[in-house]
Design a protein that fits this description.
With about 220 residues, the chain is of the alpha+beta class. The chain is built from eleven helices and four strands. The termini are far apart.
């Protein structure tokens, strides 16, 4: 692609969804401009580029806005298809399976995890059990493979690995060990962080924990 292309990622530093897009762009070696959006005081620009949901991340490519993180990752994969790696398998069944698991993670994990750090008592416990249930199902799909695509880091890995930055917060609030419950997931996540695209894109777990503490106080006002 031509160097003068406009590629802008609009996101918020702690967003696991925005982190996915960062990883995808880094994996493809695409130069982009990053714009931090203040989610506590959303800009009119965000309303312009994502008028339906007014959420991050948004990828702006040559004035066109692409919304929703999984949709953005597929867009990146298609537009820059000549650049390795490909995020989705070429086999239709494997591609469908990857989309299924990415969609499952996307719709289930974030919402379940919020109960761990926003709730107490039985509701917190139910959130913890649900997160473990989700991770165990995903761990079953991973099996003994290095990555979800086998030896290849791809779509499902990009979808899930940003949540690794939140494991510390979940464990601290919920008083449990993800490694004890899902050792293969933790080993997989550590493998992923050996990739430069992941290591430079994931926010610091302690910073995430501190931000969640701040967010809880903010929401309690």
């Amino acid at each position: 692609m031509e160097k003068e292309e406009e590629v802008i990622l609009v996101s918020f530093w702690s967003s696991p969804f925005g982190c996915r897009v960062k990883i995808a762009l880094e994996e493809k070696g695409i130069s982009y401009e990053y714009k931090e959006e203040d989610l506590f005081n959303k800009s009119s620009y965000l309303s312009t580029i994502n008028p339906v949901h007014k959420k991050v991340p948004v990828l702006v490519h040559n004035k066109n806005s692409i919304c929703e993180s999984l949709n953005i990752i597929e867009y990146i994969d298609e537009v820059w298809r000549e650049r390795s790696p490909s995020f989705l398998p070429s086999d239709p069944f494997q591609r469908a399976k990857a989309r299924f698991w990415a969609d499952f993670i996307d719709k289930q994990l974030y919402e379940a995890s919020k109960k761990i750090y926003r709730c107490i008592g039985e509701e917190q416990e139910s959130g913890k059990k649900e997160v473990i249930r989700i991770l165990k199902l995903v761990e079953g799909e991973l099996g003994d493979k290095s990555f979800f695509g086998g030896d290849t880091f791809g779509f499902v890995d990009i979808t899930l690995v940003p949540f690794y930055s939140r494991f510390y917060a979940w464990e601290t609030f919920g008083k449990f060990s993800i490694e004890e419950e899902c050792p293969k997931i933790v080993a997989w996540a550590k493998r992923c962080t050996l990739k430069e695209s992941v290591a430079k894109s994931l926010p610091d777990p302690i910073k995430i924990y501190d931000f969640i503490l701040y967010l809880n106080r903010y929401l309690a006002k």
